[in-house]
Amino acid sequence: MSRYAMIAAGGALGAMARYALGGLVQEWTGARFPYGTFVINISGCLVMGVVMTLLTERGVVHPNWRFLVPVGFIGAYTTFSAFEYETFRAIEQGAWLVGLGNVVVSVLLGFASVAIGVMATRQLL
Q1: With the CA atoms of 63, 74, 109 and 111 taken in that order, what torsion angle do they form, in degrees rounded to the nearest 10?
Q2: Residue extents of the structural domains in the chain
Q3: DSSP 13-58
Q4: How many Å apart are CA 75 and CA 32, to the nearest integer?
Q5: Out of 23, 40, 90, 122, which residue is the most buried by the measure of CB atoms under 10 Å away?
């Protein structure tokens, strides 16, 4: 399969996963804080740590999987632009603590999730 077809396939799956999970999380938690986007970004960081460790350090799958999963799936699944827009809207509406909390917690947990994904994958292999 060509790299563009792999990116397209991964992107379609990632977009559908984002839509489904984001909606489900928001149903469970309500709309005060953008939990759907938050969960998607953090889980995307975790998956990125796992997949990139497998691809770059272990070589357990063909390198073309880099186009399917990190570029296609995770690229469409994570919602950084939505994260930024929701943060902007919160601050614009005067909810500075929500906006600031979203930035700080997302960045710290996103970084920690990537690190956990890398370390856990290294330990398992």
Answers
A1: 40
A2: 3-124
A3: HHHHHHHHHHHHHHHHH-SSS-HHHHHHHHHHHHHHHHHHHIIIII
A4: 26
A5: 40
d(CA 106, CA 66): 24
d(CA 116, CA 82): 24
CA–CA gap between residue 53 and residue 114 (Å, rounded): 10
Tokens of 96: 């500075």
For residue 47 the two structure tokens come to 């998956």
Backbone angles phi, psi at 111, to 5 degrees: -60, -45
- C-alpha to C-alpha distance for 76 and 97, rounded to whole angstroms: 28
Distance CA 35, CA 28 (A): 9
